[in-house]
Fold these 4 entries.
Entry 1:
Amino acid sequence: MAVVDREGLVVTANTALGRVLGIAPDRLAGRPVGDLVDLASDARTWQAYREVLSGRQARLNCTRRIKHPDGEWLWVQLTLTPLPEDEQALLLSVKDISARRELQAKLRHLQMHDAVTRLPNRTLFFERLSTALEAEPYDEAGTGRIGLCYLDLDGFKAVNDTLGHRVGDLLLAAVAERLNRCADEAGYARMATPLVARLGGDEFALLVENSTGTEQLAELAESVLKALRAPFDLSGQRLSVSASIGVVERQASGTTATGLMQAADTTLYWAKADGKARWTLFDPERNAHRMTRQALSSTLRPAIERGEFALEYQPLVSMEQGDVRGVEALVRWNHPQFGTLAPNRFIGLAEEDGSIVQLGQWVLATACRQARTWQLEHPDVPPVFVSVNVAVRQVWDSDLVADVAAILAETELAPHLLQLELTESAVMGSAGRPLQALQALSDMGVRIAIDDFGTGYSNLAYLSRLPVSVLKLDGSFVRGFQYEDDGGSGAGHSGRPNPADEVIVEALIQLAHRLGLTVTAECVETSGQATRLRRIGCDTGQGWLYSRPVPPDRISELLRGAVRSVR
Ligand code: C2E
Ligand code: MG
Ligand code: MG
């Protein structure tokens, strides 16, 4: 401590102050306080100091960094207050807080870094990101842009689960080291080194401030994938991992930390969905599509109640006689905003959020009512059956058997006029409840068809043991033997289709027949295809050659035409 006069000169100082400042107390007398503790270097502190000296303010409190004569830097906290018993004097106290500051810094480092990898953690990452985004757009040599590689290890959970957390931690630390190396190398080439942070679990981020464009980020992502490609040696364990990276690069102004992270998260998800072990660049259009997905999914349920769905029907034609035996009901969404939507746009969503159950009930009821109406309106022709697509989830999450029984009873439609189409994956490996449901439906007299047959892994012998009676051959088979009969004259049709396809399909049909199944071919578009399908024994065809999916009144017209031709 020291007593100071109104001019700011030391009157007397104690030994402790002498020690802190590294000057003998008697040599401190007469020296200006402002110099001793470096008050002039900061204008605001200086002004406050002057005001305390002149009595306009009661107290000065501040922290200064000063150089000790032995060369060390100290942090000191000082206060200056008037002495109560002496108008002309003030009391200065100077406290060495270096140790406390150091401890604080250490704590901060601990708080801001991850113990496993020693990388900056999520907190520090977001602090740096926010600062970078707040920076003046045309700051000095800045580009006003920002880039981020958001990385996630593929299959890290399996490493943890099979080799234990210790090896998992070693792997994370080793990955961190390689990421740092990539960042350093990128730093040599450019101005600043990207910040590498661990955001949690097996997620890492490389933040590039003042990025120059997507190429720079692509280069960085590429180098990271390359660096991780070499196997890791972890205390005797040789391990290979890959990573998926979402890359976002954009103008810093107008970008928020949350916005950037959301974009990075979506992009990382794409990288994973596209097959992992790759980097993917943020694509606003793909994102817009995702937004529409969200918009669609949030309005699905109310849309069912508002009656925005409609069914179209596509004829199923006998290959031998060429007459319509049945129709497949295909749902459409007349969306008030997006227009008519094909089922591929929303069935998946409806399955994800469960609204497929409600939608499926509506489709089933509408299709059965329609089939019964046709039957009553056209008593002179053999009734057509209706084939309704059923999603896996409907078998699992609803009482499909009860729903079907109720709707058949209500509409008085004969069970054999209803066919249900399930995909291979829905029936494969079905045991317990789904199998019981299929059996009960089949016992009721409802036919079960396997839709898109050939796209999954079904085994025909297995299928034949299930209560299934129809196979719908996936369109890709028919597309396989496209050209031959369409005329060798056909200009541009150079490629002869692979005869193996036809051989396979023929064998498939024969086998199906022997197992008691009938076969419907999807996507019959040309008469050439129809001829060959007929030749190899296919029972029924469906496709544009016969008709596109059409509204119900067009089917009525078709049936009226059939009456005429019968007469
Ligand atoms: P799917 O059951 O295999 O239906 C056949 C699809 O092939 C229909 O597409 C149809 O328009 C199309 N198609 C028919 N003939 C041809 C052709 O000659 N060439 C080509 N290229 N395509 C043809 P759509 O209507 O877009 O339906 C797509 C899928 O959506 C259906 O495939 C079905 O899996 C599903 N789906 C449709 N309606 C429903 C429904 O009510 N419930 C459920 N769960 N799924 C449905
Ligand atoms: Mg179908
Ligand atoms: Mg199909």
Entry 2:
Amino acid sequence: MSIQVFGIPVSRGVAIGRAVMVASSRVDVAHYFVGAERIEAEIDRLHEARNAVSAELEGLKRELPPEAPHELAALLDVHVMLLHDESLVGAAKVWIRDRHYNAEWALSAQLEVLARQFDEMDDVYLRERKADVEQVVERLLRELAGQAGAVSGLSAGGAQAVRDFAGEDPLVLVANDVAPADMMQFKRSVFTGFVTDVGGRTSHTAIVARSMDIPAVVGAREASRLIRQDDWLVIDGDAGVVIVDPSPIVLEEYRFRQRQSELERARLNRLRHTPAVTLDGQVVELMANIELPADAAGALEAGAVGVGLFRSEFLFMNREGALPDEEEQFEAYRDAVLALQGLPVTIRTVDIGADKPLERLSQQELRHEHGLNPALGLRAIRWSLAEPGMFRQQLRAILRSSAYGKVRILIPMVAQMGEVKMIFDALDRARQQLFDAGRPFGQVDIGAMIEVPAAAMLINRFLQHFDFVSVGTNDLIQYTLAVDRADEAVAHLYDPWHPAVLQLLQQTIAAAAARGRDVCVCGEMAGDPAFTELLLAMGLRSFSMHPARISTIKQRVLRADTRLLRSRLPGVLASDNPAQAWQQAAPSRP
Ligand code: PEP
Ligand code: MG
């Protein structure tokens, strides 16, 4: 029977494919596909983990003190029995063999299947045994995490393997939540769409999905419970609807829409190398947001005139153990700079914390592990200033990359004047260290992200220190409206059109322009065509967005006349309902 699940549309278009479920687990679980050549080794890993856990449990039982309640010994027996039950490890092997899942993913997928079976049992005693299976799986996952040979990342062979097993069928990923670290692995993967139970319009999962330019729906609450492995799904990324098991008529309608949007994309692509100039001759800079150096080529291909935001924190994720050292970071930044062939690359220092933890944690785990409100905690520049050695190391790596092209440094989440001094002191020391070591580096402009209302309100003071500013509207909206950008429960309150948000944006753009400083918007508003004209009216001439959005925004720019747009602005800023006022002030089309 066909059902519909509603969520928040975050990445446009239509995806049709079979569901691949990614189960959530209390333990940090990596999800990746293993190549055909590694299947047997992966099954061996699982066997080794089972044997180790079995020995551990037997040992625990042997060492139980005589006064221990005898239920405890019985419980350990149950766990050993479950461990050797074919429905657990035996079935997980099937996931590895048939689906090419890594051992951890296979186990958590099988746990999901068993958990459903337990939930459906009438007998209360049996139903409660679900917790035992969960504990056994948790032990296995911990054992696997500590094993040598655990691989992180999707190998090229693995990507091919999953294509082979899926045959012609496209695949859609369905999960309660996907940690940003996992999302980066899936970025190089084969999924044609994403559905998650949690998340908001500008949560990082949504941002990465958009950067992959594939349809995605987040905040679909019950999706991972209602959808089963292998179900056929249609993701309507424009409406935020997931249709499970669609009828042939519905499927045909969506296939038609899919073809239409492919044609539209091809048409827009032709604008790739057309300069973005408005009807009244205003030159507009359309730049790219990237997450990895490998994205730089796609940015050029899409017609970007530079990188307006390189989210360097993604280099720090998906790592077993040590964080990237200066050399590794330098190579990554240099590669991006070289790929841009002389165009500017704006490298943001790490924005770790909040919904981008170093560890692979889901939103719920994040809140649990990192206190109630990580977005107000040790995040971004606060984290860097708390780790001065690491901060200088990153600054040195970025400065060194400036010997290969035009580089700008962008500091995230600046809010205090005291931070400004610490940032420039750190920069002075980093430069001095490079100078003493005889390492070359060039002239680098330093910019601040304006994404905390305090910084927007004190913009003139910040502009005394920084060469340029870039408005992070994703966070500016979150902090101005006190609405967690990753929480689907308050997603309806996350409103870029809110008069307070527009006022802060307008003030920031006007203040930078008055001082002759560059100002860019690099939050998701910059890549949303609904705001292009409004931002142009405010005087913005530099936008940074996912490369896939550049052609769409360029089309808007080419049709705009900033003189007419400017005249619409005062009424809109004064209105209680700016979205409506902006529409009403539009000249009626003949
Ligand atoms: C923003 O906050 O708008 C921004 C661009 O930064 P991020 O989305 O990475 O927090
Ligand atoms: Mg931000």
Entry 3:
Amino acid sequence: MPRRRLIWQIFTTNLVVLLAALAAVALYATGSLRTFYLDHVTTELEARARLLESGVNALLNNSNNTEALDRFCKDMGRDSATRVTVVNTAGQVLGDSDEDPAHMENHAGRQEIVEALASGRGASSRHSPTLGKDMVYVALRLETRGETQGVLRVSVPLTSVNEALAVIYLHIAAGGIVVIVLAAGMSWWMSRRLSSPLEEMKDCAVHIAAGELDYRCAVPDSEEIGGLAEAMNRMAAQLHDRLTVEVKHRNEMEAVLSSMTEGVLAVDSDEKIINVNLAATRFFGLEPHAVLGRTIQEAVRIADLQQFIQRTLARGVPMESEIFVPHGDGERHIQAHGNVLRDAKGKAIGALVVLNDVTHLTRLEAVRRDFVANVSHELKTPITSVKGFVETLQAGAIKDPQEAERFLAIIARQADRLNAIIEDLLTLAKIEQGEQKGDIVLEKCGLEEVLRAAVQVCEVKAAEKGVRIDTQCEPGLRAEINAPLLEQALVNLIDNAIKYSDAGSRVEALASRNGGEVVLRVRDYGSGIEKEHLDRIFERFYRVDKARSRKQGGTGLGLAIVKHIAQAHGGRVSVESAPAKGSTFSIFLMAPASVLQARVG
Ligand code: ADP
């Protein structure tokens, strides 16, 4: 049903009531007026009739003189502007002011005449068949000495009554119109006065409902509507306060959830996602806002997780599981802890899953296992060799001085190798410890000296192999370094470069500034490294060609040491290499200005 404005409802109701009242009053007033006026005319006619009564009686007694009677009627009628009629008891018209009695019909049946003959006086207002118009009649019974002689009737046309009444009606109508206009105006004004504060209330409510909780309603002076406005203002203020607290709580909760490294995923009992934090969306590659409200089956196509959530919802107890999520070329290893979500009354309303990315830990564990296996393996080879040659010597070879010397030389070489491995392992352990404790002291030093010192260490070996070392350093280049450690890293790199270069080749040791970093590069033009090994080359004991490395006296730990030294400086390492073309190993350190900025920042 269409809704109408209140102002129109009040106004139209008022107007209808007003018009009805006015119409009722007008009807009653005009009716009463007409009756009053007719009574007045009747009384007047009766008075006239009484005046004529004696004259007519005199003429009537002289029964032969009907002509004189008729003339009397005509004279009187003309003078008094009244129709005068005299009839005998039989209803025959003896005289009439307006018509010829001879042509008039018998009047015995006329209402006023019947009444007058019966009671002495009669009156009526009706249509006159003689004159053809509406008339008001008054009739008096004429008596002489107690004997009825006839009836005297006087009348005036009703039109004159109607005309007089019409003038009065016109005045009443004019007055009524004025009253209607005035009352309609008053009614409109009152309707507005009643409805406009309500309309303001409505506007105010619309603003508040639209979320403008700072909006306040104007308080009108009416008791009821003023009270309503105040109540609405109080309600808006309370809503505002509650919402502010809610938003604050929500923001705090979102901040906590989004800064967590653990993934958090909450679903309702229909498995629809009701909350998911940033970490969880990252684990599963989801769009945070696109998944809210969707079922876990639609949003995350990982069967392990879907089943885990179903199990948690079904069993209603804390659950734990491992989930493997495809990630890049490999997979992420995620540890999931699930529990049932309960509302304030303890009713189960869904499930909450906390996800921990343990890929790194798993990898570390694998590295540790590999490391132990590698160390054992690396140590076992020289020990087996030493043991073998000692047993051979014991078995009699010691008696052959030449053989004995050869075997002892091999045993000495293997001991050196064991020593080299253990020294490298100790160095690595020391650097790692220093890194963890943060007690590797960095000082601002010139890099040229460090570079030259490293080259100097390797010069004998280079000369033996016929390899030339070119050094180039940007003048005055300085960085915050631990000089002995950095020198060792450079020695490892230059030593490798010489090892894997052919005789007569060239090795370059370079130091330069690159943006906010200082780069130390060792380039060779030797054997180079196949692409598939480049990612793993810095791992402990990783060697491209084990036999060649061993023959060269390598331990497989040199590059691991370089990587840890770079990390202990807050830097990093990289390698570019192509088989048969050579390799470039780089150590990136922060330039002093950047170090300063980083510390200030
Ligand atoms: P190693 O003691 O065996 O040299 P490193 O950790 O120093 O151990 O190096 C690991 C492996 O990387 C080496 O076995 C070798 O295969 C490869 N490698 C290192 N430096 C170079 C280089 N400059 N050219 C070619 N291969 C290299």
Entry 4:
Amino acid sequence: MQIIGADFVVLCDEKFSVIKKGGICFDTRGILEIGDYVELCAKYAESKNEYFASCAITPALANMHLHLEFSKNVGILHFGDFGDWLDSVLLEREHLMGEDLQTAMQDGILECLKSGVGFVGAISSYGADLEILANSPLRVMYFNEAIGSNIEALDVLYQNFLVRLNDSKAKKSTHFIPAIAVHSPYSVHPKLLEKVLEVAKKENLPVSAHFLESKAEREWLESSSGYFQGFYERFFKKTMCSFYSTESFLEAFSGLKNVYFTHCLEANDKILAKIKEQKARIITCPKSNRLLNNKFLDLSTLDGILLCLGTDGKSSNDSLSLLDELRIALFAYANRPLETLARELLLSVTRNVFLDSVLPLGELKVGNFSDFAVFKLPQSKEFLAQNLILYAKEAHKLYIAGEEVLGLALQKALEKRLESKAEKLENSKQRGEYGKISNF
Ligand code: MCF
Ligand code: FE
């Protein structure tokens, strides 16, 4: 059992309560008591304790949409227009995973941890990220992706999906939740959709889907015309019609629990009302949306739908830092009152992700898991969510299941870098390159 305290303990409860000079008493299994730091220390005098001055403690943050496998995409893909981006994904498909993917994914995990993220919703297209994520300190909702529009290939694609899903089910724990990703309405055949959602229903697995991300997708769903018509002709030599209308795609998810729709930039009021009725959540990825679709989600239309935040992958973002994402969102939504927006954003990476959901996380309360992030703040008498988002460029500490994980992760990364530097030096010595001008 131990106690940590800080100038502000931000509960992320319904009322956005903040305890000044607050403390949390916890062990590796969960939070035991929350209150005044000095009083907790007096009550549990034998416990180890630590106070973080000029800091706020929040629940560990959740990045709910991430493609770790695309961590080597930097500079390869075309930004500025969704169609150009998707063309570049297809044209570069042989090179998207890149060499030394493991190192890039390890760096990506470190970027997450450094930004106070203790939980990720990882979309896995190939399963190449399974081991590295399962062995990381992060808690993971692991969305095995189903994708494929070609009816002849469906059996193979479905079998491949099942193999990946089973591999991930073997890792199931309170740190690792197997789940299903349906790529999108333009890329998943109705037969494949039916089969994977049947599995989701039967096994009560969380599901995510890219949905209504681009104008091109909306046009395709509404009238089987526009960019996707040419896309199928150019890349698959086929004349196709959309498999779904916006409504019929959405309808397929009815009756499922824990559904996350990513992007929804082009969702109209009718679609949003249906998403609300289904109690599904929307994940927004502002930087990705700016880069691929020149647009941000209109928060004023959400009408109580729980909003979550994600970075997407390096395929559509320059970083996997959720603090970067929060900061950009704070600037992007210039028409919302600043502190109200900052609080909404903070809740989108904590409470909203887990409310009535799979794990006791996202809010600091007795019985919830001991996952906390500690952020250094500028000195201030009151807690301002805007200060956290503006000034915290990195987390100061990160606890997952009651253990501080950031210090060790940073130390391991440093050791690895030193090792590889020493290796490179040794190699260049052996090649007789040591001391050449080019090495300066
Ligand atoms: O969220 C972005 C944009 N929308 C759709 N897909 C992806 C995104 N980032 C990566 N992807 C992946 C997707 O999961 O791209 C692959 C899929 O496996 C190729 S099809 C766009
Ligand atoms: Fe994505």
